[in-house]
């Protein structure tokens, strides 16, 4: 089913964005462009957000990313046997 006819955004796309972490209408507008034209679909789109009537997400979760871990030893050969040149960052 189309949620936003103006931008051809489907229910499946909205659910995928919410499952990917969208928690507000602003998030959906940024990710998909929903409710950025005439705005008629805004109320329907909000129903798919966490806590909404059509939500598949039970709660809002804060996503955290692990800190980058530097590679300890880059002097050896690549695992696949091909030489990979290491370029130093400026």
From TrEMBL:
- Give the protein name, as stated in the record: Bacterioferritin-associated ferredoxin
Keywords linked to the UniProt accession: 2Fe-2S, Electron transport, Iron, Iron-sulfur, Metal-binding, Transport
User: Which Pfam families does the record match to this protein?
Assistant: Fer2_BFD
The signal peptide here is none
The highest taxon in the source lineage is Bacteria
InterPro entries the record matches: BFD-associated_ferredoxin, BFD-like_2Fe2S-bd_dom, BFD-like_2Fe2S-bd_dom_sf
Q: Name one GO molecular function term.
A: metal ion binding
Q: Which family does it belong to?
A: Belongs to the Bfd family.
Q: Which organism is it from?
A: Bordetella genomosp. 8
